[in-house]
Amino acid sequence: MTATPAPAGSPAKVSTLTLSTFVVGSMVGAGVFSLPGQFAASAGVAGSLLAWALAGTGTLMLALVFQRLAVQAPHLDAGVFAYAKAGFGDYLGFVSAFGYWASAVAGNVFYWVFVTTTLGAVFPALGEGDTPAAILVASAGLWLFYGLIRRGVTQAAALNRVVTIAKVAPIVLFVVLCLFAFDPAVFAGNWTGGVDGPPLWDQVTSTLLVTVFVFIGIEGASVYSRHARRRRDVGRATLLGFVSVLAVFASVTLVSYGVLPRAEIAALRQPSMAAILEEAVGPWGAVFVGVALIVAVLGAYLAWTLMAAEVLLVAARAGVLPRPLRRADAKDVPVGALTITTALAQLMLIVVLFSDNAFDIALDLTGALILIPYLLSAAFGLKLALTTPGPLRLGAVVVSALATAYTAFLLLAAGATYVLLSLIVLVPATALFAAAKRERDERVFTPAEWVVFAVAVAGAVTAAVLLATGAIGL
């Protein structure tokens, strides 16, 4: 069926393919280029296969929840925020939106530090990404992307589609080239991890902690749902993106075991993909991977900037963030949200110039925040499944329950310390929620939300005391 054209003067909607590139584009960043070395450090082929199977199954459950919610609750925009708000109230909706945004901004700054550090190997003035020249280059890139996005959301989404294809293609080529250099005997020798390898289950648990975090970004199409031509496209794009990324990530890991012994892969300098391709095709392979790495990171930056601004915009329009963040121009660009997103990233880049440690702390404080929206979205899916009658109810309950358990595991895997430390960011940020409520002459908290906030304050105070006494560290 042909989609109905957008009315004249209204922003154009995006296709299923473009939506899926938000899923792929946000997940494929710097991490994939280090996967061979990370896996080989702990596991052989069998352990890697089991880890991918477990992580893939858990993420598939979450993807199916997003697919179902896109159809059952098509009126909810920017899924990870809207699902938390619809299921558990305004304050947890705010926690989801702000946590997602803050973590995305910190991650985006990491991307620029990573790019300038990589370029520092060729241009010494850039150093380790913390020199004045590096900050100047990163700042220029930051505002260049700001200008590109200001040209229009549809144009930026189309650019993200092109960039995503451009960064996935070299990774697929890596897999193909490694297949030509593939040695079945080497692969067989890596099957169990070697004679000195750890037990199989230990291999699985060690690598599982790597696999669970490479799928961060699975919500990309859901976040951009209001731009979809049809709401059912959101679910299709989520599944298409997930399957594509799982296939690429698992292939990168597995073909590497056919090029070099596990111990040698584990000893490679990161990004390990570069050294493996160099072994397979010669010195140009390392250069090829280096260029692909920069393209991938810049593409991930674009995707995450678009999604971070989108979540702020929708949250502000829903009344849980202040009014200035609601503004969008005639091209549907969330100007207020995009500006504050870019400005905070710029501020954090300046902080990098004076203190690497301060930036590392910011990453630690916000790292666990992005997992909270996943848990709340899955829990909302479970709540909806339990309260919606129908012949498919049992299947929906099972899928949602598994997704909820999986996302709870993600939070546990992140570490209780980092979850506790994230409250140091969330509690002061609640002032923004209170300001938004006062703008609408609404009470700030419901009785239940007062309890949630009190627990958060207690957790933040506990974290601050533990930090001050040295009981926990960053």
Automatic annotation (TrEMBL):
A GO MF term: transmembrane transporter activity
Main subcellular location of this protein, as a coarse class: membrane
Biological processes per GO annotation: amino acid transport
Example of a GO cellular component annotation carried by this entry: plasma membrane
Topology in membrane: Multi-pass membrane protein
TM ranges: 17-37, 49-70, 82-102, 109-127, 133-153, 165-187, 207-225, 237-260, 280-313, 333-355, 361-382, 394-412, 418-436, 448-472
Keywords: Amino-acid transport, Cell membrane, Membrane, Transmembrane, Transmembrane helix, Transport
Protein's UniProt keywords contain Electron transport: no
Record-linked InterPro entries: AA/rel_permease1, Amino_acid_antiprt, APC_superfamily
Compartmental location: Cell membrane
Similarity annotation: Belongs to the amino acid-polyamine-organocation (APC) superfamily. Basic amino acid/polyamine antiporter (APA) (TC 2.A.3.2) family.
Protein name per the record: Arginine/ornithine antiporter
Species whose genome carries this gene: uncultured Microbacterium sp
